[in-house]
Amino acid sequence: MATFTVWKFDTPEGADTASGILHDAASQGLVTMIDTAVVSWPEGAKKPTTRHGQQGEWRGAGWGAFWGFLLGMLFFIPLIGAAAGAAIGVAAKAMEAVGINKDQLERIREGVTPGSSALFAVTEGADMDRLGERFHGAVGTLVSTNLTPAEKANLLETFD
């Protein structure tokens, strides 16, 4: 099963650092990377910047559309009040197929703010113990995942 995970970092560079660690781990067979996206929001910037990982050329267009839709709805469409809730609802309906719900989208939108960054990752088959060793000291907050409660607890324990 593919796992969708979002990690928030308290610096604009934190997600880039974590992305490098994750890519290195993938090259050593500790996790299969399906795709990634990094959102970085420097302090004082009006909006964040995004970068799609493009893990595989044949998958690039599909994942590019996925990330464009998701990140556009979360960060680039100017929304206020009820319009924000409606847009999150539309995004949630579209994201149900990949296990992302409205509450998760709202946590992501509220959690990534100026001065922070986020790593969005879709992975499979992670060796959690060995992968956790790689992330030791890379302080991030798990914002959202479609893991089961038991898998999520194991993930938090591994990376804590």
Automatic annotation (TrEMBL):
This is DUF1269 domain-containing protein. It holds the Pfam family DUF1269. Keywords: Membrane, Transmembrane, Transmembrane helix. The lineage of its organism: Bacteria, Bacillati, Actinomycetota, Actinomycetes, Micrococcales. It comes from the Bacteria. The chain crosses the membrane at residues 66-92. InterPro entries: DUF1269_membrane. It comes from Cellulosimicrobium arenosum.
